[in-house]
Amino acid sequence: MSGSTFGNRFRITTWGESHGAAIGAVIDGCPAGLPLEAEDIQAFLDRRKPGQSRFTTKRQESDQVEILSGTFEGRTTGTSISLLVRNQDQRSRDYGNIASVYRPGHADYTYTQKYGFRDYRGGGRSSGRETIGRVAGGAVASHILRELGVVLTTYAKAVGPVEVPEEEYRFEEIFQNKLYMPSNQRAAEASSYLEAMMKNLDSCGGVIECRVAGLPAGIGEPVFEKLDACLGKALLSIGAVKAVEFGDGIKAARLNGSQNNDAFFMENGTVKKKTNHAGGILGGMSDGDTLVMRASVKPTPSIAQPQQTVTENGEDTELVIHGRHDPIIVPRAVVVVESMAALTLVDLLLQNMGSRMEHLRKLYL
Amino acid sequence: MSGSTFGNRFRITTWGESHGAAIGAVIDGCPAGLPLEAEDIQAFLDRRKPGQSRFTTKRQESDQVEILSGTFEGRTTGTSISLLVRNQDQRSRDYGNIASVYRPGHADYTYTQKYGFRDYRGGGRSSGRETIGRVAGGAVASHILRELGVVLTTYAKAVGPVEVPEEEYRFEEIFQNKLYMPSNQRAAEASSYLEAMMKNLDSCGGVIECRVAGLPAGIGEPVFEKLDACLGKALLSIGAVKAVEFGDGIKAARLNGSQNNDAFFMENGTVKKKTNHAGGILGGMSDGDTLVMRASVKPTPSIAQPQQTVTENGEDTELVIHGRHDPIIVPRAVVVVESMAALTLVDLLLQNMGSRMEHLRKLYL
Amino acid sequence: MSGSTFGNRFRITTWGESHGAAIGAVIDGCPAGLPLEAEDIQAFLDRRKPGQSRFTTKRQESDQVEILSGTFEGRTTGTSISLLVRNQDQRSRDYGNIASVYRPGHADYTYTQKYGFRDYRGGGRSSGRETIGRVAGGAVASHILRELGVVLTTYAKAVGPVEVPEEEYRFEEIFQNKLYMPSNQRAAEASSYLEAMMKNLDSCGGVIECRVAGLPAGIGEPVFEKLDACLGKALLSIGAVKAVEFGDGIKAARLNGSQNNDAFFMENGTVKKKTNHAGGILGGMSDGDTLVMRASVKPTPSIAQPQQTVTENGEDTELVIHGRHDPIIVPRAVVVVESMAALTLVDLLLQNMGSRMEHLRKLYL
Amino acid sequence: MSGSTFGNRFRITTWGESHGAAIGAVIDGCPAGLPLEAEDIQAFLDRRKPGQSRFTTKRQESDQVEILSGTFEGRTTGTSISLLVRNQDQRSRDYGNIASVYRPGHADYTYTQKYGFRDYRGGGRSSGRETIGRVAGGAVASHILRELGVVLTTYAKAVGPVEVPEEEYRFEEIFQNKLYMPSNQRAAEASSYLEAMMKNLDSCGGVIECRVAGLPAGIGEPVFEKLDACLGKALLSIGAVKAVEFGDGIKAARLNGSQNNDAFFMENGTVKKKTNHAGGILGGMSDGDTLVMRASVKPTPSIAQPQQTVTENGEDTELVIHGRHDPIIVPRAVVVVESMAALTLVDLLLQNMGSRMEHLRKLYL
């Protein structure tokens, strides 16, 4: 399989390079009859747009999306949906030594090893701008989920060393600060941390958490297409993500079974869990409880400090990266994580439709 | 897509339930001409076999594998390879309340929600015995990797709270203790911890780490089939895994770019990295350095302590699980992690073959 | 993708060689709650079993199927179903020059070119016995279709030069003659033709037709997964099939639009077609009318006449094939065609479930 | 799987409607280092462009292609290639009763049944303009094949009742007549036939044949991904194709084994076949001989004669279709057939690369 397609029943295929003519996505398998306008998608793209705060690249891109196919009179037709975003900022410039040097922490070296050469303009396909296609597709997926009562909430759980503990979580504050943290106070702390860090010409990472409410139980396919396996792949496919956790995640490895098991009990005739260490997933399927996943994001590799590296010709050299780079990508990556989660969930909801003979009878008899 | 198939170019399809007649796997896409005998596979299966130590279930299963197709005169023919392991221990027994009660931490509830009913015999398809098929397939994949000079080393990095710090890592000791820890001393500590824990009728989890040496650079497909995304899905598809990390993993989120970037330098004409925070992966492709991945395993949900839960009829109840259960699955899961990693790597090595026109010319002209 | 898996949402993976230990199939994606016993599958296998008439190989095989997984208390559980058929007739024998010579019309040469060597025992994986796995899977698919009111009727439309014209079609006679022809009189003619042909140590082909009634309209996905495209691939994947037609098939190429278009009209409030030149398919989707497809089967390549060929060492030679071979495979291939059609239809019925938002709402809200 | 993606290792995803903003394709899995300019693709598109002769629609479309991604400095980079063709002729017009009536022979009825409504503007996604994406992708595939010495020749074997017998085949004349027939004399006959037919406000079909030279032996995967099965699906996915044949095709069903088997013999140290009844395919793999396949194309359903049909509201009515329609699509469909064949062959050539361990050793050791 080629790497630019994600999903089985609900599929997104993305394309485009950082400094190419445009970036886009084709969505296939979208159910017919979904109300869909460009604005629905634009709202998502605006959450990842550069220039939202002093902590993001100054690159000026309006990233306006155009729907080229798959809708008619404001509704999806069931056929493939093509989404296009033109790159405005593609002025040819002198890439200087970037063109002939491998930037540490970037894909320059590995792409060259794989393909024999590379598109050195801003990282080409390995650039963060590739995520525009994901977010455009994620917007459509979220739209479907909303119609089914499935709601995703995503935010920056931590920025560098500054973390929002569970007890300080404030849903309503997520969109009140530029860092999308669920605590304005922690966001302020994080901002000062970022200021200092930027003075050192350095960058940092963080943690993005996504919670999903309203997902029916039983979503996910045994044994290799488990809900957590699919979501994990989705999140790990985002450039800077180095770890993924579900529920208690790595902490679960230190717990005992008596602590980690979530006891079931009845409440108003429905099955509930007293705790949610499992993060809403049992045996690779949703258990009806809130889904909780986290992605650890590494610091932006592009920093202005001098770095040791090598040239394509195999000579040691020192590199200083100039130009516009996010000191932290976490705030802009929040909507990317939400998009990948949404794409995965719609795909699995569609796959699950044929899980019982009674579902087929309901639809075909 | 259905969930029992893993891989694209190199595929494994597994089947079988805990108390069914047998468990097996079909491998498709295995290159022709690979020397393969049942012993090659048996060696892997023996690493996950029950009854190896007092920390694993007493269930007696020899788990003998039979090759039913795909080989001729000791070599693979290029056609699908069918592997079969008969279940010996399937004596019909009274499953007591297990049949009508949802065990906390297990898939009983979610399978029932998905399918309308479930095979309650020992968890059916959601049982750990399902991994026999993975390990059988992983043995074949490892066999291929060895021929290409790619070597996997997998071990228990942590058992409950007892962890082996990097500086105490001893490769040669991994197979010298029943817990497959790379430190006999830490293994001894872990054993005493397990003894105490078992007295409390409790269970625990741990961390499994896998290192891959000899992998060429450039393996992994942009953008959704990244090496880490595929490996992450592979590991997260293992029942009890709640988190996956690559290189520094979650620690990377707290580092600065200047700390996390691995500087390149030349050594005897080849590109090297001074450090390996990235865990051998840049931009979703192998960078030629050692691959490092970790899976956090939750504690075994089956414990003998009384637990609160509900019945299929929606009544609150208390459950006491009897019978044979691993107080910790980490030691037996080590080879499962290695198998899933091997399956993923062979699949991506095959997919990578067509990455350059020069490769096609070399093969077809 | 590897070649031994068929289908996307409803998948079958087959394995096994002519003279290996066994042959089998794994079905994944089968909805839960389908009543399924070994007899349901055996009935299908018996239709392709050798030794049914003097026109089929004398090879003695009872081809008894065993269900190894995926069912519990007589119903499918939703997990992968493993089906096994042991090969009884695998006595090692002297394959004589077959082992070192390329049989005309067989896969000996092409398999050797692809893999570097081949399993020469009775054709190995390229043997007609491979279809046992397809038929076992097809039986399960047909079972699902029957529950949805979709009924397949398959028969030998022609045996060599003897064809059953539409006006002579007798449904009830299909199972009254050993050739599965819908006309006992034509079957008698065909039998005499076969007798004469066998005297000449020759073989012949024929045409198999399949009609599907009760298929809802709208099944099939635009643009590459069209109903006819998927069915065509399914039928052409059967060893000896050299052509596939839908409705008027090749005759349509000579018709005018005014002759070929099927006029719509209303009947008791439902849309009907006056004719069915289209064979029940418009724009790659079922139109609610009877599906009509035909497969042209080439003559059995194994004949007892001396044939010119070459050895693996590149020497010209003359070959005389001894032993048991079907002078015509059409009668036994009838159920193989029906099986492949059934597998395709179930796959597309499942894929179609998510075609409308209203279907998702019906199932999830 | 969704229907707008074709191929596994070499993939094309198409999108776009007849009267939407644009039509396009995304190619993924294209090897890096292939020289590729827009002109290479334009040359293919021009072969299907409307208005080439008086036998094709008068619709004016220049169908200029734009490469939006996947190339750098005139070579493919290995990442997804996005191709875009703007629709010029999308003037909103009164579609009259077309909007509320089901055209016989078209997908109007089936799309409405599947999705609950349809894009009635010129057939939307089911329009022949959808093939622009296929042809753009096919141009890239053909480009790869040429580099490997694989050459496709495609032409109109028959137009309505006028067929070019094998003995009259003239390769050099294919591009000398507007009908792409390999015989100028038969093309002249066909032209007069078409003139007469057009006077009757009627349409007709024909047969397209494709020959492939230079394909190595062993291409195609057992058992479901056979070369003929994959090619058959590719051709049958083209709107108007009702039958597909390989080699002798349907004639093979009437031959005897002694006539149909192609004898092998040695010529200058290589294995040859005395005849090619098999059409270059044995056991689902290429045998090194010329590949021969044929597609039977139905007559254009859009005719100006009054036709009986029904409205979306279920009333019988009479329909007269006005406007620009091809009386025959065969000439323009020639390049579509060639494109689908090329896409299939590249996909299988890439899949075949991992068929032997020695191939992996050659590439990785």
TrEMBL record, chains A, B, C, D:
Species of origin reads: Schaedlerella arabinosiphila
Q: How does it assemble?
A: Homotetramer.
Family in the record: Belongs to the chorismate synthase family.
The biological pathway it contributes to is: Metabolic intermediate biosynthesis; chorismate biosynthesis; chorismate from D-erythrose 4-phosphate and phosphoenolpyruvate: step 7/7
GO molecular function ontology, one term from the record:
chorismate synthase activity
Protein name per UniProt = Chorismate synthase
- The answer to whether the entry has keyword Cytoplasm is no
* Any one of the GO CC terms: cytosol
- Enumerate the catalysed reactions: 5-O-(1-carboxyvinyl)-3-phosphoshikimate = chorismate + phosphate
What does the UniProt record say this protein does? Answer: This reaction introduces a second double bond into the aromatic ring system.
* InterPro entries per UniProt: Chorismate_synth (IPR000453), Chorismate_synth_AroC_sf (IPR035904), Chorismate_synthase_CS (IPR020541)
Q: Does the keyword Ion transport apply?
A: no
Alphabetized UniProt keyword annotations: Amino-acid biosynthesis, Aromatic amino acid biosynthesis, FAD, Flavoprotein, FMN, Lyase, NADP
Q: Which Pfam family, just one, is annotated for this protein?
A: Chorismate_synt
